[in-house]
Amino acid sequence: MLILGGTSEATALARALTGRMDIAASLSLAGRTRAPAAQPLPTRIGGFGGIEGLATYLRHDRIDVLVDATHPFATQISRHAREAARLTHCSLIALTRSAWQPQRGDDWHEVEDMDGAVTALGETPQRVFLTVGRLQLAAFAKAPRHHYLVRTIDPVDDHGLPGATFIEARGPFDAVAEERLMRDHRIDILVTKNSGGEAAAGKLHAARALGFPVILVRRPEQGGTAMGVAEAIAAIKAHRASARRGV
Ligand code: NAP
Question: Would the pLDDT of 224 be above 80?
Answer without folding.
Answer: no
